[in-house]
Design brief:
This protein is α/β, with parallel strands linked by helices. Helices cover 47% and strands 15% of the residues. The chain has ten helices and eight strands. The longest helix is centred in the middle third of the chain and has 19 residues, at 69-87.
Length: 234
């Protein structure tokens, strides 16, 4: 792996979804603990859910439930389908930031380890589906994040190849790993506790200091800074 620093302007920006653009942790926590109870497993606290849920279900549930993971998958998805739209909440500045970025002519996409059908339902409910060229969730591609496959799917049809001028924006170590595996520039959203995740996974050196930003306002400023020297457009 090597560091990406986004030294030039982006042609495309790929976003993580949960805790990057939206907050649906209450729905995930509810569905996960419903599954744990049904499977006779200890439940997790809300903070445990936030810190431990990173991999896609098809990668994490076999580790959690062994041979019964498909049974657990049905319980989880049945519960999540029942509650996720009721709990859906955009994070501050997400809608305005996406509209601004799209207005600059940037190609936008989503790569998430949430199941693709639920991901697209949430984008549609928020009225954000028009911002994105492709919205790619778990199981849509051959492998899930941090594998490059969903990134390549998200860029398919855009005329843009994976490279440093494509930024991957997320709040977790798995997002940085996916960016690096795909040859993209990682841009990290700093929120409470997220920088510690970079440290814990030995990834600090792979994210340029200028690419560690505070939410959408920080991302907007970074885009402006990268375009201004070459175009004067701002």
């Amino acid at each position: 792996m090597k560091a990406g620093n986004g030294s030039g302007p982006p042609r495309a920006i790929i976003f993580d979804w949960d805790n990057t653009l939206v907050d649906v942790w209450p729905a995930i926590h509810d569905a996960l603990n419903t599954t744990f109870v049904a499977m006779d497993h200890p439940t997790w606290s809300f903070e445990e859910t936030r810190s431990r849920v990173r991999k896609s279900l098809r990668d994490s549930f076999p580790e959690l439930f062994g041979a019964r993971w498909t049974e657990a998958r049905k319980i989880f998805y049945d519960r999540y389908a029942a509650v996720h739209l009721d709990h859906l909440k955009p994070l501050a500045g997400s809608a305005e930031g996406l509209a601004w970025l799209a207005g600059q002519g940037l190609y936008l996409g989503v790569v998430s380890n949430k199941a693709g059908d639920y991901l697209r339902q949430e984008a549609e409910r928020l009225g954000w589906d028009g911002f994105f060229g492709r919205i790619v969730g778990a199981t849509d591609a051959q492998s899930d994040k941090p594998d490059p496959a969903p990134v390549n799917m998200a860029l398919d049809g855009s005329g843009i190849d994976a490279g440093p001028d494509v930024w991957f924006v997320g709040d977790g170590a798995i997002d940085v790993q996916c960016a690096l595996n795909s040859g993209l520039t990682p841009v990290f959203f700093l929120r409470d506790g997220t920088e510690e995740e970079l440290v814990g996974h030995n990834l600090v050196q792979f994210v340029d200091a200028q690419c560690r930003v505070r939410g959408m306002e920080g991302l907007k400023k970074l885009v402006q800074d990268r375009f201004a020297p070459i175009s004067g457009r701002y």
